Amino acid sequence: MTSTMKTGVFIGRFQPFHDGHKQCIEKILLENNRCLILLRDNEQSEKNPFELAKRKAMIRAAFPDEKRVEISVVFDPGADLTVYIGRDVGYNLIQLDSQTEAISDTDIRKKLYEGRGQEWPLSGSKNNISLTRQPFLAAVRFPIFWLTGNTGSGKTTLAKTIETYFNNEKSASDHPATRRVIVLDGDEMRQTISTQETLTPKDRRNHNLRVARLAKLFQAKGFLVVVSVIAPFENVRAEIDGVCSPLWIYLKRSGLEKADRPYEFPTHPALVLDQDVLSMKEGSDRLLRYILGTLAKDTAIRRSRMSVKVA
Questions:
Q1: Cis ω on the peptide bond leading into residue 16 (within 30° of 0)?
Q2: Which of 29, 144, 173, 276 makes an SS bond possible with 246, Cβ 3.0 to 4.6 Å?
Q3: CATH superfamily, region 7-110
Q4: Could you give the CA distance from residue 47 to residue 267 in angstroms, rounded to a whole number?
């Protein structure tokens, strides 16, 4: 019996996954029952900076339905994969509009890393997140810490200080979260997985929930996730609670309220950092103490700390 299940195949590196990829998959799903993504597993390099797990998580955050969007990994260490399609064998090629096709992975990578003095996140770098840690760490579930506050409250700066602390072997060499911290920053997320979302309440909600799903996926892989995304509306924060149950860190700073910057204060944050009173260093120190204290209370994390070895 011939199957009527129509499948569209999309192959790529997704370095990183961007809106052009998203639109292509959406077009495939409009014309087919499902989309099979063949994700190329390349050796990391300047042109391939994102680890396989992170790329898979980016795609899955945009398309959580595993039945309609299936991801298979194609081992391609030399980045030298050639796909041959025979003529008149039932395969069709699709073409997107010129504006979407002009979206460049290289340009996105440059926006993400150039101008910030950052090196490419290559495997083995002391500031890089490693996937080669002890296998049992994948079973550890670190809490998700979500920094919320209006634009200009200091979310990105504080999140990066936490990332620097844990991803620096000298400061946290014996901690299970060493080199396993991922920061999901609002600006970076809008440059990658939410490129078409505006600042309307509906688009903000879609963007926030997309980040929440991505945070949950990274958490499931054994990463400590720090989110620095405004999430200005209380009802959306309640939805985020249902997705990934983060610990909310409220960065309070006066004078940021404007008509185009709506923000509803959280009712029950886990921690409040008064940025009107604290210096940036005092705020980062207090945040670090809170995170370390929270992790120290987790029995599973304490047990893993006894056995952790840095790769």
A1: yes
A2: 144
A3: HUPs (3.40.50.620)
A4: 44
Place of tokens 């970076």: 188
Q: Mind listing the pLDDT tens digit for each residue in 10-46?
A: 888 888 888 778 888 988 898 888 898 988 887 777 7
Query: Which strand (E) or helix (H) includes residue 20?
Result: helix 19-31
- What is the CATH code of the structural domain delimited by 123-305? 3.40.50.300
**Res 273 pLDDT > 50:** yes
The C-alpha angle with vertex 220 and arms to 109 and 170, in degrees rounded to 5, equals 65
Residue 124 has pLDDT above 50, yes or no: no
239: burial class by Cβ within 10 Å (0-12, 13-18, 19+)? middle
Range list of β-strands (E), the chain:
7-12, 34-41, 69-75, 145-148, 181-185, 224-228, 247-252, 271-274
Tens digit of each residue's pLDDT (9 = 90 or more) over 151-160: 899 999 999 9
136 secondary structure, DSSP code: G
Structure tokens at 297: 């209370």
Q: Where in the chain is the domain with CATH 3.40.50.620?
A: 7-110
> What is the rounded CA–CA span in Å between residue 123 and residue 107?
21
Say if residues 48 and 55 touch (Cβ distance below 8 Å): no
**Structure tokens belonging to residue 291:** 């995170």
| Residue ranges matching CATH 3.40.50.300 in the chain | 123-305
Q: What is the pTM of this model?
A: 0.59
CA distance 113 to 78: 24
Q: What angle do CA 125, 128, 132 make, to 5 degrees?
A: 90
Contact 8, 35 (CB under 8 A): yes
